[in-house]
Design brief:
Layout: H1 16-29, H2 47-50, E1 65-66, E2 74-76, E3 82-87, E4 92-102, E5 105-116, E6 120-125, E7 138-146, E8 153-162, H3 170-174, H4 179-185, H5 189-197, H6 206-219, H7 229-245
Parallel strand pairs: 2-8
Antiparallel strand pairs: 1-3, 3-6, 4-5, 4-7, 7-8
Helix pairs in contact: 4-5, 5-6, 6-7
């Protein structure tokens, strides 16, 4: 949601420079009002990353949910992005990262990681013992949990591509009053969510993070002929529940 303030009510704002200063001041006062994610491009993910279990483990409540785009390929400018997901209960999970070489070929990056998740919001940053990701390449990350009292695993995947950061100096980026808004406007989902969580309580989204997850739910469009239409709709509803509950 944008915050509009009619400048003509303030007689002290008389120049372009003062208007810019005023706008930056307003942004820093209420960053949650300006944060918004609405991607302009929605390239479909490959079949190799979509071929994962979509149902839950029969548990009550919201199942394992990756807090990243799944019906289209997300973007990041980080070579070691932070990845975020939700679980309703604490449980062990397995994390894997793959590079997509073709529609039918993938290769694992780094070793399998065993992670003890907590109830709520979980974060995992690609560790330093993994190779750096490369600009121009496409990857997907995978989180899996073992379904209790069965031999089945619930697997969730999200695909992303690594791109160059839009033209802005590191010093300028560091001093931006609203980095979340900058990342969101440039379609850098992973940076936007990671930045928003820096001001949230552990295991929670915070208000800005909650706003972003609502935006994510809105962006997960469903094609009429999509065979996974029902599961996508359920995921959208789960995202909205998470945004409201984990604020």
């Amino acid at each position: 949601m944008k915050l509009y303030i009619p400048l003509f009510f303030n007689p002290h704002i008389r120049s372009c420079a003062s208007v810019l200063t005023f706008c930056v001041f307003v942004t820093s006062l209420n960053p949650s009002a300006l944060a918004g994610f609405s991607p302009r491009t929605r390239k479909q993910p490959s079949e190799i990353s979509r071929g994962a279990g979509s149902r839950g483990c029969g548990e009550n409540g919201i199942p394992l949910t990756l807090l990243a785009p799944q019906t289209y390929i997300a973007k990041t400018a980080s070579k070691r992005p932070t990845l975020v997901w939700y679980t309703s209960t604490p449980q062990p999970a397995r994390f894997r990262l793959f590079e997509i070489e073709s529609q039918k070929s993938r290769k694992q990056i780094g070793a399998l990681q065993n992670i003890q998740t907590s109830a709520g919001i979980n974060k995992f940053t690609i560790p330093v013992d993994f190779p750096e990701l490369s600009v121009g390449k496409t990857y997907f990350w995978q989180v899996s949990i073992h379904c209790q009292n069965t031999d089945e695993w619930l697997v969730k995947r999200a695909e992303f591509t690594v791109e160059n950061l839009p033209s802005v100096s590191k010093n300028t980026l560091k001093n931006l009053p609203n980095r979340v808004n900058y990342f969101a406007e440039n379609e850098l989902w992973y940076e936007a969510l990671d930045e928003s969580l820096k001001n949230a309580n552990p295991g929670k989204l915070g208000q800005i993070g909650s706003n972003l997850i609502q935006d994510l739910a809105q962006s997960e469009l469903i094609e009429e002929n999509d065979a996974e239409r029902v599961s996508i709709q359920q995921r959208i509803e789960n995202l909205r529940l998470i945004a409201n509950r984990e604020r």
